[in-house]
Amino acid sequence: EPEVTQTPSHQVTQMGQEVILRCVPISNHLYFYWYRQILGQKVEFLVSFYNNEISEKSEIFDDQFSVERPDGSNFTLKIRSTKLEDSAMYFCASSERGRDHEKLFFGSGTQLSVL
Amino acid sequence: DQQVKQNSPSLSVQEGRISILNCDYTNSMFDYFLWYKKYPAEGPTFLISISSIKDKNEDGRFTVFLNKSAKHLSLHIVPSQPGDSAVYFCAAITAAGNKLTFGGGTRVLVKP
Fold it and tell me: How far apart are CA B7 and CA A109, in angstroms?
């Protein structure tokens, strides 16, 4: 079965450093998302991306965050200057169609620890 | 942000019995509701959904009930199996939106 692949599975970084979280969505999918879950809290929407642009973003997704689809296969989330409160599990997700949340596939996540 | 709330953080049930998971929401603009299941070290996977125009949807051992007037939905798993042990998230979406709003999750343990 096709799957969304995220790398690395764990990332440790120092506060203030830049990190890039990488995702390879399912190949024929056109809609891409990032969600995150801070330990003990809810899964929260960060951003959705379609047709090479952001279609929706949350209040969390401030100027420190950016997303990019640099080639036909990767979808990245960059945090420019990490803060302690950015420590969370970050999930990438993709779907073939918009609002097709029954066929929204999540990756296994990247656990980001900011020290 | 308490738009979607799962009040029971955990649930323990005997194999073969019914598991009932509850979810409450406050945003009346939500028109579609989903349940996702999550195992450790994996991302959430879709389980079952219901549109706001329905009050029940059934898929095998899983049934979701929606009470719009009470802004409440529940997931029934019957019979529960040990492989159902996981964290279950309730999620909701508005008609115009494209983002899921999740509840905090309920950890289910099915004992053999």
Answer: 25
